Structures are given as C-alpha cells and as structure tokens.
Amino acid sequence: MSRYDENFQAALPRSESMEGDDLMIAAVTPEGAVVITDGERSAHYVPHQAEALKGTKLRIVPKYVEAGWFSEANVVTLTDGAREALYVPARQTPTA
Q1: Nearest to residue 13, comparing CAs of 5, 2, 25, 3?
Q2: What is the C-alpha to C-alpha distance for residues 87 and 29, in angstroms, rounded to an integer?
Q3: Count of alpha carbons within 13 Å of 26, Cβ hemisphere only?
Q4: What is the Rg, in whole angstroms, of the alpha carbon atoms belonging to the chain?
Q5: 3-state SS record for 50-85
Q6: CA 91 to CA 81: how far, in whole Å?
Q7: What percent of the chain clears pLDDT 70, i.e. is strictly above it?
Q8: Distance from C-alpha of 39 to C-alpha of 36, rounded to nearest angstrom
Q9: Phi, psi of 6, deg, nearest 5
Q10: Ramachandran angles phi, psi of 52, nearest 5°
Q11: What is the pTM of this model?
C-alpha cells in the first residue's frame, strides 16, 4: 500500500485499546494468511517480510499492534507459540 487510502484504512478492524487485545483471528487460510476481525469489520492479513506462520493455534500478540488514525490495525504481530511474525492488511475482501 504505497498511497494512503482513507476508505481502505477505515474498513480495517479496529482495536479500541490500540493494543490488539480486543481483536480476534476469524480464519487461517492454507497459504498462511489470516482474517482478523473486531466483531464488526474484518480483513485479510498477510506476512510482512516473513514466512507465514502455520497451524491452528495462531494468536495475536497484545501490545504489538500498530493502530492508525481510526484505531485500525495497520500491523499485527502473530505467534504460533514458537515464532512471531508481522502481518499487514492485504487489499482483498475476506471470505470468512
């Protein structure tokens, strides 16, 4: 995302705490992307300069979420229990 797109940013899930403890992983794709939701909005997130985490026990690492102007989750740190990776929003419509 090279250019700021306010509509795209506003559509991302929001963390009211700005720490991500109120966000949930709704789905994990076979490719390693995840759908993250705040209960109202959801978006696909993909690994940023890292190998995708695999498995069914992925979780969001609280306090390692970068929140933007709307408290939207711009960068989310996920863990599989052994490794951590940064995930960023992908420009596509989530299916879950």
Answers
A1: 25
A2: 13
A3: 16
A4: 12
A5: CCCCCCCCCEEEEEEEEECCCCEEEEEEEECCCCEE
A6: 27
A7: 91
A8: 9
A9: -60, -40
A10: -60, 140
A11: 0.83
Task: Say if residue 53's pLDDT is above 80.
Answer: yes
Residue matched to tokens 């929001």: 14
Q: Copy the structure tokens of residue 57.
A: 């026990």
Residue pair 76/85 in contact by the 8 Å Cβ criterion? no
Q: Is the pLDDT of residue 74 over 70?
A: yes
Q: What is the pLDDT of residue 3?
A: 54
C-alpha pair distances (Å), 21 with each of 4, 6, 14, 77, 92: 25, 24, 11, 11, 24
Q: Which tokens is 11 given?
A: 């559509």
Q: CB of 24 within 8 A of CB of 79?
A: no
**From the CB of residue 67, how many other CB atoms can be counted at a distance below 10 Å?**
19
